[in-house]
Write a structure and sequence with these properties.
388 residues, alpha+beta, nine-stranded mixed sheet, two-stranded antiparallel sheet, 39% helix, 20% strand
Length: 388
């Protein structure tokens, strides 16, 4: 089959262009623009993410080397100075809105069925991105360091971020989770570490919304055991119904809580978990907390394989533009992986897309090839694709 669109064009076609233009219009971001529209900026920055470009000069050189193909993108300029001005001046909120618009589509991807229960399973955590204070003075974290944090509500089943918030490196994780719009849907299970323990927040925003939480017990939390529940599963030391006491704990959370004590053979450690879910087995509660590690792996992955640790601009807006477009690229790749039932890892998929990004061939055809066949893809001329 002859293909006139490059892989990159096919990626861009997955984006909701009409909604994007509405976001641009809300901010009047393309007003008086002559050379680089917001769509052009998005295209170039997605290209930089896909190809893992190191600098604006690297982006400019890469695009100019593909000059016979990039005219399909409608780019009038790929000069690094123009890209830098766009990243500095175009509101990052445009790309933040596009991320959530794209998420509406991605959240319908087939969920991971590792767990037997059907409840939506989420994790909350944050990661810190260290910045040079001299280059990023707006991100002051200490006397000698700069930093920003990414706070995330992560869907463990679909492996995609559902909600992302940026904050200063000094901001408290719990305060951000409480005050920046995290929403817990009914029947969902949210797992988090001990830094997020706030019983009033648990009761008002999670329990009363008919949602569930799973969190590790802090050593200084006082409680009274009401009932010892039957224990049948390997590794489960005890399963208890408790009531909180001491300080304002009972006032903040006036209902019973479940305490599961579990011995993990892999780490040779004993863990205690608090939850308001009395339906799932004690072993399942322990497995849910173990699944929290998936959000840590997500943070590690995006730091290693997306451009969110080094930046093409030093202004706060330029940094956030780059971060949000990186998140958009992650959703695009996740969507392709989910829809095509691509069995290999998302890392392998990003590597394949990077190698053939500007080739004229169907994404579906590419994903059917073995890695050693990718180098055989060549464009003979503007219309003829040859698969050797």
């Amino acid at each position: 089959m002859n293909y006139t669109n490059t892989i990159f064009n096919q990626l861009l076609e997955l984006l909701p262009r009409n909604r994007f233009e509405q976001f641009v219009g809300q901010h009047k971001a393309d007003k008086y623009v002559k050379k680089m529209s917001c769509w052009n900026q998005l295209s170039i920055m997605l290209y930089a993410q896909a190809k893992r470009k190191e600098s604006l000069r690297d982006i400019e050189t890469g695009l100019l080397s593909q000059e016979n193909k990039i005219y399909h993108l409608g780019l009038q300029s790929v000069a690094r100075s123009t890209i830098a001005e766009a990243n500095r001046d175009r509101p990052y909120q445009i790309y933040e809105s596009l991320f959530y618009e794209l998420f509406k589509v991605c959240k319908e991807l087939s969920p991971n069925t590792k767990f037997e229960f059907d409840n939506p399973l989420k994790a909350i955590d944050s990661t810190t991105i260290i910045l040079c204070l001299e280059l990023f003075p707006w991100a002051k974290f200490s006397k000698t360091k700069g930093a920003i944090k990414l706070h995330c509500l992560f869907d463990i089943r679909s492996q995609i971020p559902e909600f992302v918030v940026e904050s200063g490196g000094h901001e408290n994780d719990l305060a951000v989770a409480k005050n920046r719009g995290f929403v817990f849907s009914p029947d969902s299970i949210t797992v988090m570490d001990r830094a997020y323990i706030d019983f009033k927040w648990f009761y008002e925003k999670i329990h009363k919304q008919k949602a569930y939480f799973v969190v590790r017990l802090k050593k200084n939390i006082k409680y009274f055991v009401l009932e010892n529940l039957p224990v049948f599963e390997e590794g489960v030391i005890s399963d208890q119904k408790i009531v909180l006491c001491g300080g304002d704990s009972l006032e903040n959370y006036p209902e019973d809580v479940r305490l599961v004590t579990y011995y993990d053979k892999e780490t040779e450690k004993t863990y205690q978990f608090l939850t308001n879910n009395f339906v799932l087995s004690a072993k399942t509660i322990a497995d849910i907390y173990k699944a929290r590690w998936q959000i840590e792996l997500f943070f590690k992955w995006i730091k290693q394989h997306l451009k969110i640790k080094t930046f093409f601009g030093t202004s706060k807006n330029a940094v956030l533009v780059q971060i949000w477009i990186a998140m958009i690229y992650y959703l695009l790749v996740s969507y392709i992986k989910g829809k095509t039932k691509f069995s290999a890892s998302i890392l392998k998929l990003t590597r394949i897309l990077s190698e053939v990004l500007m080739d004229r061939v169907s994404i579906i055809d590419i994903l059917g090839l073995k890695p050693r066949q990718l180098y055989k893809i060549r464009i003979r001329d503007d219309t003829q694709l040859v698969l050797c």
